[in-house]
């Protein structure tokens, strides 16, 4: 990719050393807004690499946490109207780790999953060991029938995406929240394809629809509209503490580099205040 002229890039062939490089236009990138080349983001990255070097130097629980990680998590929590947030190495890891951790704290939870959910969510549900029930994409009648079949006191979690990338459909957020409250269920919403794009502050469809405070757990990515790298989960302080304590995808891996956290922080702030 060429900084400053995106979506232009140089194509150098496929495993062909004799191929002549040529300029192409990239229309399949998920850097939707070109934030990966935004001058504000690049400046933040340069400053961070001069201040903190390249790698994080450890896991988050040992020596891998810097001020950039802490400030980024604080910014994400505020953006999603949540008490706390935790950053992972990717959106995939964020979903898998957070959902698998639910099984540690609520082993009898029923996970009610939309059929259009991403592989990362499916893996997280599988690794949680919890009972799983699937409803057809955005089919609220089927969802309500499933919810109605369980006692109110039984822990339940509705797991869905705000924007389904393969179908292009958008979840009826308010109606899902209504059902969750009616049947005493938690909500887990993946906003990966929406953060940075929807809402006055780029906090996704939940913000656009005015229901961010009604969604219990929101996951997102820093690698699409924000143009950097990594993923995150925002929720109550208690849930985030549990994720930090039980999620293997957070505990047993090196933290994202400070330069990445700094760039992501700059991007989130830029889009949050750009209107």
Folded structure, characterized:
The protein is of the alpha/beta class. The protein has helices spanning 39-52, 67-79, 91-105, 119-128, 140-148, 173-182, 205-208, 237-246, 248-251, 258-273; strands spanning 8-11, 22-25, 84-88, 110-114, 131-135, 156-161, 163-164, 169-170, 186-190, 217-221, 231-235. The strands form 3 sheets. Strands 3-11-10-9-6-4-5 form a 7-stranded mixed sheet, sandwiched between helices. It has a two-stranded antiparallel ribbon with strand order 1-2. Strands 7-8 form a two-stranded antiparallel sheet. Helix 4 (119-128) links the parallel strand 4 and strand 5. The two termini are 27 Å apart. The model has no long low-confidence stretch (mean pLDDT 96). It comes from Perkinsus olseni (Perkinsus atlanticus). The chain crosses the membrane at residues 246-271. It is an enzyme of class 2 (transferase).
List the keywords:
single chain, 275 residues, alpha/beta, Aspartate Aminotransferase, domain 2, 2 domains, two-stranded antiparallel ribbon, membrane, pyridoxal phosphate, 5-aminolevulinate synthase
What Rg is obtained from the alpha carbons, in whole angstroms? 19 Å
Largest sheet: 7 strands, mixed
Question: Helical amount among residues, as a percent range?
Answer: 25-40%
Taken in chain order, the helices and strands follow as EEHHEHEHEHEEEHEHEEHHH
Residue windows where pLDDT falls under 50 for at least 5 positions: none
Give the CATH level 1 class of the largest domain. Answer: Alpha Beta
Number of continuous helical runs: 10
User: How large a portion of the residues is in β-strands, by DSSP E?
Assistant: 15-25%
Categorize the overall geometry: globular
Number of domains: 2
The quaternary state of the protein chains shown equals single chain
Look at the helices and sheets and give the structural class: alpha/beta
| First-to-last CA distance | 27 Å
Number of strands: 11
Strand order of the largest sheet: 3-11-10-9-6-4-5
Query: What is the annotated CATH architecture of the largest domain?
Result: 3-Layer(aba) Sandwich
CATH topology of the largest domain: Aspartate Aminotransferase, domain 2
CATH homologous superfamily identity of the largest domain: Type I PLP-dependent aspartate aminotransferase-like (Major domain)
- The chain-level mean pLDDT equals 96
């Amino acid at each position: 990719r060429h900084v400053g002229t995106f979506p232009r890039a140089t194509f150098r062939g496929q495993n062909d050393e004799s191929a002549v490089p040529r300029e192409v236009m990239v229309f399949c990138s998920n850097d939707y807004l070109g934030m990966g080349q935004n001058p504000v983001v690049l400046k933040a990255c340069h400053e961070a690499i001069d201040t903190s070097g390249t790698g994080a130097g450890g896991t988050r629980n040992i020596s891998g946490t810097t001020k950039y990680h802490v400030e980024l998590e604080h910014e994400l929590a505020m953006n999603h109207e949540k008490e706390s947030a935790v950053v992972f190495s990717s959106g995939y890891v964020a979903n898998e780790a957070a959902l698998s951790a639910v099984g540690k704290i609520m082993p009898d939870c029923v996970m009610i999953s939309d059929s259009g959910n991403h592989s990362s969510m499916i893996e997280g549900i599988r690794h949680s060991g919890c009972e799983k029930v699937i409803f057809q994409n955005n089919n609220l009648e089927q969802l309500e029938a499933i919810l109605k079949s369980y006692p109110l006191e039984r822990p339940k979690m509705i797991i869905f995406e705000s924007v389904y990338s393969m179908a292009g459909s958008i979840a009826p957020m308010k109606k899902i929240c209504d059902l969750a409250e009616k049947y005493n269920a938690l909500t887990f919403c993946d906003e990966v394809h929406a953060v940075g794009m929807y809402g006055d502050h780029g906090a996704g469809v939940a913000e656009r629809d005015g229901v961010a405070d009604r969604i219990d757990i929101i996951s997102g990515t820093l690698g699409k509209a924000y143009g950097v790298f990594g993923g995150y989960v925002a929720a109550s302080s208690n849930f985030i503490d549990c994720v930090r304590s039980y999620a293997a995808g957070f505990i047993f891996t090196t933290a994202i580099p400070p330069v990445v956290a700094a760039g992501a922080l700059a991007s989130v702030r830029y889009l949050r205040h750009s209107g």
